[in-house]
Design goal:
This protein is mainly alpha-helical. The protein is built from 22 helices and eight strands. The strands form three sheets. Strands 1-2-3 form a three-stranded antiparallel β-sheet, with helices on one face. It has a three-stranded antiparallel β-sheet with strand order 6-7-8. The protein starts with 6 loop residues before the first strand and ends with a helix.
């Protein structure tokens, strides 16, 4: 007796029912594969429920094709009628083969027949206790012309092209290239002419595993999956892919950083500068070797703890006064501006040291010259971002002052962000204020601690004491303002 049962066993031991939707019904059903947890680790119970679900979905598929449904038992509308088996002249059961939904039962002789009857009795007993969670819901078929089905019928290659066109205007050229490589790479792996709505999690997982075997590391795989998540979010909104809950995007959960990888990543990431290194980098004679724009960029990065792209894209309109406190805003509202995430959008007080060095004076001088950006020579929409020039300049500056790269990790402009955060931490600046100041995400339980009525004055009181490096401010100011007005305004 052969009993196909469509069973998969999860690593947890729980059995799942898995059924491939017929090709001619996938556009209507909106799925290529149906998968449901059977909520049991007992193989006998799981086998029987696989029979039940197979029969029920067979009824749904038959109705979808307009072929009607199999005969039903009058006592229970959701129970198929028991099999009527062939018998001989003496009422003995003959050899037979029959189909119950997607389950084929074959019996050759009395012994096979006895096992078949035992299986049917198990099915009947379990169906009488039918848990609602295991009953497949009826499929709601489209009414009228099959417009929704046609809308879903979109080749993934064409959908990828459309998505890239839709984000081109708001995406940096380099970022667009990276996103295109990820989504088009998956489309090629899956088959550019296959329908987008046929993609299931198993297809994406197979692609991820293929990339891993090709030698790509976990951080790269995480980035590629994040871009693919954005593509599927767009596809669901556009009607090219079935709707899914926010936390069930098919591209989610395929790659995670293991604890060992996280430790290794931290060890090889950017390192914070020591106090002695900061004083060496910001000595007046050392700063004088940088371009005028790079000097200001390096100082803003140190005191604001900002990312290099956030510094390089600053517009003059980002400098305001709130509650009589001079502030700067990190935002994506202006042309060529972008932020890493929503937590990065912030308005922070300008540190008193930056005011003493003349940052607001520079802003006013630029406005008087008719400029609109803090660094006028930076090209809007640069391929590598608005901060690429500053990152390269500061890396050369580190080498020029004689600071050697560490044995593990590296020094760069991002080290200034780590330096600011760790210095505030050492000064016991509360976590919620540190996160608010540098634009880090924070758990919801802490949000109330720095939201509500708190503003720039409170933030300044909280963080300014944790951002001190005993620099020669008067000497630095002379280095910043040496030369004529036009030089300091026109400098990058």
């Amino acid at each position: 007796m052969r009993l196909p049962h469509h069973l998969l066993r999860h690593s947890s031991g729980v059995f799942h029912f898995r059924l491939v939707v017929p090709a001619d019904l996938r556009a209507v059903v909106g799925l290529r594969i149906i998968k449901k947890s059977l909520r049991t680790r007992d193989p006998a119970v799981a086998r029987v429920w696989a029979y039940v679900l197979g029969a029920r979905y067979a009824q749904v598929f038959a109705a979808a094709r307009g072929q009607g449904t199999p005969p039903m038992d009058k006592a229970r509308k959701d129970r198929p009628r028991p099999l009527v088996l062939p018998t001989g002249p003496g009422n003995e059961v003959l050899d037979y083969a029959c189909q119950v939904g997607n389950v084929r039962i074959e019996a050759n002789g009395p012994e096979d027949h006895a096992r078949a009857m035992e299986a049917m009795r198990e099915m009947a007993a379990l169906m009488a206790q039918q848990p609602p969670a295991l009953v497949p819901p009826p499929v709601v078929l489209p009414v009228g012309p099959a417009a929704p089905a046609h809308r879903l019928m979109r080749p993934i290659g064409k959908a990828a092209e459309q998505w890239l066109r839709s984000i081109r205007a708001d995406t940096l050229t380099k970022t667009l290239t990276i996103k295109a490589a990820a989504v088009e790479g998956f489309a090629k792996h899956f088959g550019t002419d296959r329908m987008l709505h046929e993609v299931v999690r198993e297809d994406i997982h197979a692609w991820v595993e293929a990339l891993r075997l090709s030698g790509l590391q976990t951080p790269t795989l995480v980035n590629k999956c994040s871009y693919l998540r954005g593509f599927f979010d767009w596809a669901a909104q556009a009607g090219y892919y079935p709707k899914f809950p926010k936390d069930e995007n098919p591209a989610m959960g395929h790659v995670v950083f293991r604890k060992r990888e996280k430790v290794k990543r931290r060890a090889h990431g950017f390192k914070a500068f020591t106090l002695g290194q900061v004083q060496k980098l910001y000595a007046p004679e050392a700063l004088a070797q940088l371009s005028e724009g790079a000097r200001w960029g390096a100082l803003v990065g140190l005191y604001a703890g900002a990312r290099v792209s956030e510094v390089g894209q600053l517009a003059l309109t980002d400098f305001t006064t709130v509650d009589e406190v001079p502030c700067l805003t990190i935002t994506d509202d202006g042309e060529g501006q972008s932020i890493k995430n929503e937590a990065s959008r912030r308005t922070i007080p300008i540190h008193p040291d930056l005011l003493a060095l003349g940052l607001t004076e520079r802003v006013e001088a630029l406005r008087a010259e008719g400029e609109t950006r803090l660094f006028p020579k930076v090209k809007v929409g640069a391929v590598n971002g608005a901060g690429n020039w500053l990152s390269k300049s500061f890396t050369r500056h580190i080498e020029a002052v004689g600071i050697e790269q560490p044995a593990k990790g590296k020094y760069g402009f991002h080290s200034l962000r780590k330096t600011a955060i760790q210095t505030m931490k050492a000064a016991k600046v509360p976590l919620e204020w540190r996160c608010a100041y540098v634009g880090h995400e924070l758990d919801e339980e802490h949000v109330e601690a720095y939201s509500g009525d708190y503003g720039p004055k409170e933030m300044l009181d909280a963080v300014q004491g944790g951002l001190g490096w005993a620099l020669d401010l008067s000497g630095i100011r002379k280095a910043l303002w040496s030369g004529g007005v036009r030089r300091r305004v026109r400098g990058k």
